Amino acid sequence: MKKISLILFSFLIAQMSFSQSVDFKFNPNGEFKILQLTDTHVTVGKNNQQHVMDLLATLVQEENPDLVVFTGDVVTDSDNPKPCYEIFAEFFKRHKLHWAVTLGNHDSENKMPRNNVASILDGLDFCINRSTDNLKGTNFLCEVKSSTNSDSKAVLYFLDSQDYSTIKPRVDGYGWFSTGQVVWYKEQSQKFIDENKDTIPALAFFHIPLPEYTDAWCNGKAFGTRKEVECCSKINSGMFGAMVEQGDVMGTFVGHDHVNDYVASYYNMALAYGRASGAKNSYGDLKQGGRVIVLKEGKRTFDTWIREKNGEIKQVCNFPDSFQ
User: What is the reported pTM?
Assistant: First the structure.
């Protein structure tokens, strides 16, 4: 009996692991489309999620993405965010569409610890989140395979930019990537380089902009809007430098600053914001929308634009061509 129970338990664990693994592929045209939403700021019990669901439904219908990514401040001011996340999960299950979440500074401000919020996401339908041992929050990656074989052609990193400084009052303000996170990214990146004898084009998604965003806007060509100074951490822990050294990440995509939606180029890397997707749930006067990113198989390039809820397309550009 014990042997049968052990076999059944092992089978269930295998099934759970299998159900959480996703085999993304470029389509026959050699493209992979991502829809980024950010700063939705929905709240359990406040009846403020429907207009976000309406936006999501509109953009999914208009763009038909392969993956939807929420870059932080998704469910806020809630002791238990699970009911709101389950509403999102039901939508994605109905559309058979995968989604991912990186946590923002407001996602764990209440009673539920950050790792507990991450654990909720790990088990939701069609959500590709999975926790990484010894790293706080949402840190994971996925590969996008070739349209014709099983070769990895792109990598997507999902990183937790943390919430607030843990060493107040010496350092105030927002959090930053830990040394462990920077090391983890470099280790994963190097594995792909070693296995493929070259870098694989990659993107990274997180919530709080890197300090280099300010330099990128001030010193380079940019597309989009900047209505507030970047609210970065006061400590630069080296994630941008690590990405430049590795040479794989083409662009980073963040939220946090609700009235910024620009893309700038800095040291041959795109530093981009999404478009605030929460409308009346948050501050700012930019129209509710999302950012679309289209990867090209085997190429270090992507197209991107803002799609507003009213259907309008804004700020179409290509990286790197538009920044030459």
Answer: 0.92
